[in-house]
Design goal:
Elements: E1 3-17, E2 24-38, E3 42-46, H1 53-60, E4 68-73, E5 76-77, H2 83-89, E6 93-96, H3 110-120, H4 129-139, H5 156-168, E7 174-178, H6 186-203, E8 206-211, H7 214-220, E9 223-228, E10 231-237, H8 238-243, H9 248-255, H10 296-300, E11 305-307, E12 313-315, H11 317-327
Parallel strand pairs: 3-8, 3-9, 6-7, 7-8
Antiparallel strand pairs: 1-2, 1-4, 4-5, 9-10, 10-12, 11-12
The structure holds iron/sulfur cluster.
């Protein structure tokens, strides 16, 4: 499968001045993030609020500028190409927003909302707009008679379908889905997720799927990146992350998630402590104040993201230790 998006060592750091204006702090919202997404693949990004997953999405959309790092769309660095070429390829990267109530202009009809990207990106000739709008509405499971209605005439789930229709109007290769179901009733969430899955199969779109709900991430993702305070601490195939998590944060995140099955009786763990303030991040491994396995080295030195096979990567000193023991022949790191 060819790579659609490749992100290399992406950083977004902000300077924040204290209320009194006396001190400046550096906030590392995204701190050395790397991943790639292949054709027709979904990468799920998961983590607590403020971990940097939405900022990562904004950097790929070029809504904000990175401090450093590279973002490639089919091999082209989107931060180095000309604005003319960027205009041409902007249609290839689209977004579905979290809030379908705020994402649609209440004064525009659905036909106008869906015709706008067709016109901006010259997807079809003007005389084909009406036909194309109807095709888009059918693709997302809405009636073709809905074209002349306004957003307020639709439910939340239907509005999100319109948001998805607008995202696919430009025939993109890559869509960032930023918490696309978290503002919807539980009863319609699965319908929207299934729609996104069906469209992916039909149109071969790649997704970056951002969510804090693990069940949603599991349902949608081929591979998963777990973020904590701006870094990916674990990345791997969906089944490896959910069946065989290696990072202490991933383990406790999974153990603290609710199980949507009343037959399953399991005591939920609670993650110790609060996420530290991004303006005073802990030294070493930023998870160490909350980690039950923290060692002295964890307070001093940040672990590196280490490959342990099958595309599975973990950033933890426990894994580093086992890896060095494996190199000396004492362990097989894949069994750590
Ligand atoms: Fe815990 Fe240390 Fe691993 Fe960080 S590096 S997750 S503190 S064991």
């Amino acid at each position: 499968m060819s790579k659609i998006i490749e992100v290399r060592d992406l950083n977004k750091h902000f300077e924040v001045t204290s209320k009194m204006g006396l001190k400046t702090h550096l906030v590392k919202a995204v701190n050395g993030v790397s991943f790639n997404v292949s054709e027709g693949e979904t990468l799920g990004l998961v983590g607590e609020s403020g971990c940097g997953k939405t900022t990562t999405g904004k950097l790929i959309l070029k809504l904000i500028k990175p401090t450093s790092g590279e973002i490639y769309l089919e091999g082209k660095d989107i931060n180095k190409i000309s604005s003319k070429e960027m205009r041409r390829i902007r249609k290839d990267i689209q977004v579905v927003f979290q809030n379908p109530y705020a994402a649609l202009d209440p004064k525009m009809t659905i036909s106008d909302i869906l015709s706008e990207p067709l016109s901006i990106h010259k997807v079809v000739f003007k005389y084909d707009y009406e036909k194309e709008v109807k095709r888009l509405l059918s693709l997302v499971g809405l009636s073709t008679n809905d074209a002349q209605k306004f957003p307020h005439e639709f439910s939340g789930g239907q509005r999100q379908r319109i948001g998805i229709a607008r995202a696919i109007a430009t025939r993109p290769k890559f869509i960032i889905c930023d918490e696309p179901v978290s503002a919807l009733d539980v009863s319609v969430q699965s319908q929207i997720l299934n729609l996104l899955n069906d469209l992916q199969k039909e149109l071969k779109i790649s997704y970056l799927f951002i969510a804090h709900g693990l069940n949603v991430i599991k349902h949608m993702s081929d591979k998963v990146g777990v973020m904590y305070l701006g870094k990916i601490v674990e990345m791997g195939a969906e089944e490896d992350i959910f069946n065989n998590p290696r990072h202490p944060y991933t383990k406790v995140l999974l153990a603290s998630a609710p199980i949507p099955d009343p037959q399953v009786d399991r005591e939920r763990q609670v993650i110790k402590g609060e996420v530290p303030s991004p303006i005073s991040m802990p030294e070493g491994c930023t998870f160490h104040p909350r980690c039950e396995y923290a060692m002295e080295v964890c307070k001093k030195r940040a672990p590196v993201l280490l490959s342990i096979g099958n595309g599975h990567q973990v950033s933890c000193h426990l894994i580093e230790e086992k890896a060095s023991e494996a190199r000396s022949g004492a362990y097989d790191v894949s069994l750590v």
